């Protein structure tokens, strides 16, 4: 069974890597860009849609300001990218926002940032995959109505690909990411050329009329209009998610790590800003419409278009207009856009495990998250992220509009605290730096981070105000729960560490027990019994006895006769059990020995069968398992398992390896 499982694992994940190959998994910039920046790049496939969708609540005229909302998003994006370029130079260890906040603002701020990032990474996967599933359903009508299982399947596929290793998954994702960049760039260039020459056709949805919702009949006027613009800006700010992943992933870059990470950030900022503004300007030029409920909000000849109308995503509408009549180009753009949305989740699959490993190292998460798997990836972190995303996709039915309101809260919490931490970092460095040129660089970096702090803090306030009642409270609640759990884990590890420390007198920990009292548990006389007694005798304990429990008087009488007939040099003690229990009499006897001689060490030898089939576990060792689980909680007691391999394990070697000299009991099952 284990051989089959191992073969299947090797087939799916590949051969394990030796630890010294860790350096070969580091990424060049051309691979690091699709690995770490695909999330932010892919946001151009849904962030403009969310801006237009929100503004459409106020009717057709509101969409005219969409480029200005996009420009505000682009300004914040540029400021954040510039700020994080300072971060990766100052803190290249991979801790990212968590390390910055912890060092400069204290552990609680660091855990707050980590909680926000963990939630946001899970949401990144859920939103990106759900959006990709919608594009897939638009391209393949057979998928309509099945977006949720399709999205869950894609998450599991990404999990497997990332378990194979960061470098291998990066190579797989590089081509689709670069194809997406080329596709969106081509749409922008061709679209603007056709617009400049007067040959750009209108989008298919341009002929439709948008019905404003109640309260917005006059458009974007008054307080409600301003609030709606802020909501559109907050939704569009989803384009900034993923920037922080590069600061968390600096250790995965090749040397010089900081410079390569900063260059990747610059490329990311330039491409994302260009793409978002191009799409919004082309959407205005083609009069493309995106609404939340097309069946009722869109009118054709004064009548609602109805449920049969299918609203294509914005990039799909633009490609149909720009490449009107050229089907292959339209299909290619739809395919690569869907792919980049799916692969954008790979940013989280690289950021979440690294952050989880750092948190586990610091004692805030289970230690298992700190270890690398066979392929030198943080396997436990990858699996945890996939499971969290699957739960969200299932709970929200893979609907981007419902998930997007939870999405960007966490990332702006981390942005704001990180920039505040960086400002304090530069203030501290300036107090001790005598070099004039170095001080000038630090002041410039501090100014950049201060601007980033002001902008990200403002966006955070806007997001909380505009999205709190629409689902952002769920993300905040999740962050609070994770914060509390991580603090509890930290306290537990600290308490255990203090309890296990040697203290002021290390010699006391090396003190030997006054005597060793060995007990071999017996059910009947057979080969496992003899082996267990042989092992016990080989340790030369101060006292050695065999113990059996009288459940059936006839069985006990037969055991006594066989014991005396073999003339075994070990005393057999029979414990009475009027209620036919095994565990309680043994526990009572062991505890009585401890009470009589508290300084003695009691070693209980438990014979156990080693079986070759899963169903055999149900037939053997049940009493042994119950006994061991109870004895482990008894101070001053050591439990030693004595294995006996049945023929089902390996017919050629079962039972071999150690002679069975006189003296030994069997396992606690009555011959089972």
Beta-strand fraction estimate = 5-15%
CATH topology of the largest domain: Amino acid/polyamine transporter I
Strand order of the largest sheet: 6-5-4-7-8
The total of beta strands comes to 8
Percent helix: 55-70%
Supply the CATH superfamily name of the largest domain: Amino acid/polyamine transporter I
Question: What is the element layout, followed by pairings?
Answer:
Blueprint: H1 2-13, H2 29-42, H3 47-55, H4 66-90, H5 96-105, H6 107-139, H7 147-163, H8 166-196, E1 209-210, H9 222-236, H10 243-248, H11 257-286, H12 294-297, E2 298-300, E3 303-304, H13 314-322, H14 327-343, H15 345-361, H16 379-395, H17 400-432, H18 436-467, H19 472-500, H20 506-509, E4 516-521, H21 527-538, E5 543-550, H22 553-566, E6 571-576, H23 583-596, E7 601-610, H24 622-631, E8 637-645
Parallel strand pairs: 4-5, 4-7, 5-6, 7-8
Antiparallel strand pairs: 1-2, 2-3
């Amino acid at each position: 069974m284990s051989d089959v499982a191992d073969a299947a694992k090797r087939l799916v994940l590949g051969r394990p890597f030796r630890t010294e190959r860790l350096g070969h998994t580091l990424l060049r910039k051309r691979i690091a860009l699709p690995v770490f920046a695909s999330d932010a790049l892919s946001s151009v496939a849904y962030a403009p849609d969310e801006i237009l969708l929100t503004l459409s609540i106020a009717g057709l005229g509101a969409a005219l300001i969409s480029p200005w909302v996009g420009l505000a998003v682009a300004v914040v994006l540029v400021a954040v990218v510039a700020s994080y370029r300072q971060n990766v130079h100052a803190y290249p260890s991979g801790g990212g926002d968590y390390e910055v906040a912890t060092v400069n603002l204290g552990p609680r701020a660091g855990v707050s940032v980590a909680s926000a990032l963990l939630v946001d990474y899970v949401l990144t996967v859920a939103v990106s995959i759900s959006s990709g599933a919608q594009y897939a359903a638009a391209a393949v009508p057979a998928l309509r109505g099945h977006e949720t299982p399709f999205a869950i399947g894609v998450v599991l596929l990404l999990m497997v690909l990332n378990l194979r290793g960061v470098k291998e998954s990066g190579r797989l994702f590089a081509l689709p990411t670069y194809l997406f960049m080329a596709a969106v760039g081509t749409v922008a260039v061709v679209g603007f050329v056709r617009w400049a020459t007067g040959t750009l056709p209108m989008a298919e949805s341009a002929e439709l009329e948008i019905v404003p919702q109640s309260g917005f009949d006059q458009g974007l006027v008054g307080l409600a209009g301003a609030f709606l613009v802020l909501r559109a800006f907050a939704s569009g700010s989803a384009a900034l998610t993923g920037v922080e992943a590069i600061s968390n992933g600096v250790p995965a870059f090749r040397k010089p790590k900081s410079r390569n990470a900063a260059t990747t950030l610059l490329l990311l900022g330039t491409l994302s800003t260009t793409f978002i503004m191009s799409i919004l300007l082309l959407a205005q030029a083609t009069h493309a419409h995106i609404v939340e409920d097309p069946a009722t909000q869109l009118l054709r000849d004064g009548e609602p278009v109805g449920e049969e109308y299918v609203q294509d995503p914005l990039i799909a509408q633009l490609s149909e207009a720009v490449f009107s009549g050229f089907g292959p180009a339209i299909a290619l753009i739809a395919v690569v856009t869907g792919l980049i949305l799916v692969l954008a989740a790979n940013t989280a699959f690289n950021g979440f495990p690294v952050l989880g490993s750092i948190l586990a190292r610091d004692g805030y998460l289970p230690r298992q998250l700190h270890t690398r798997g066979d392929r030198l990836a943080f396997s436990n972190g990858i699996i945890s992220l996939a499971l969290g995303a699957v739960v969200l996709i299932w709970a929200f039915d893979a609907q981007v509009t419902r998930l997007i309101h939870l999405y960007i809260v966490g990332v702006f919490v981390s942005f704001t605290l990180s920039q505040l931490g960086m400002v304090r970092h530069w203030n501290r460095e300036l107090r001790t730096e005598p070099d004039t040129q170095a001080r000038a660089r630090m002041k410039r970096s501090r100014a950049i981070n201060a601007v980033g702090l002001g902008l990200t803090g403002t966006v955070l306030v806007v997001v909380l105000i505009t999205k709190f009642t629409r689902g952002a409270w769920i993300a905040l609640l999740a962050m609070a729960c994770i914060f509390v759990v991580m603090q509890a884990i930290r306290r537990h590890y600290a308490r255990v560490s203090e309890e296990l420390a040697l203290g002021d007198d290390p010699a006391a920990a090396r003190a030997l027990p006054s005597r060793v009292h060995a007990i071999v548990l017996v059910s009947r006389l057979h080969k496992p019994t003899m082996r267990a007694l042989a092992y016990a005798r080989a340790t030369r304990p101060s006292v050695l006895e065999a113990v059996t429990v009288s459940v059936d008087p006839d069985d006990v009488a037969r055991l006594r006769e066989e014991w005396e007939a073999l003339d075994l040099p070990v005393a057999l003690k029979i414990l009475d059990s009027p209620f036919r229990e095994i565990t309680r009499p043994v526990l009572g006897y062991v505890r009585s020995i401890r009470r009589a001689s508290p300084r003695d060490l009691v070693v209980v030898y438990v014979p156990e069968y080693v079986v070759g089939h899963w169903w055999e576990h149900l037939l053997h060792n049940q009493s042994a398992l119950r006994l061991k689980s109870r004895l482990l909680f008894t101070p001053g007691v050591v439990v030693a398992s004595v294995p006996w391999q049945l023929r089902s394990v390996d017919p050629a070697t079962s039972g071999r390896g150690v002679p069975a000299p006189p003296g030994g009991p069997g396992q606690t099952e009555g011959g089972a």
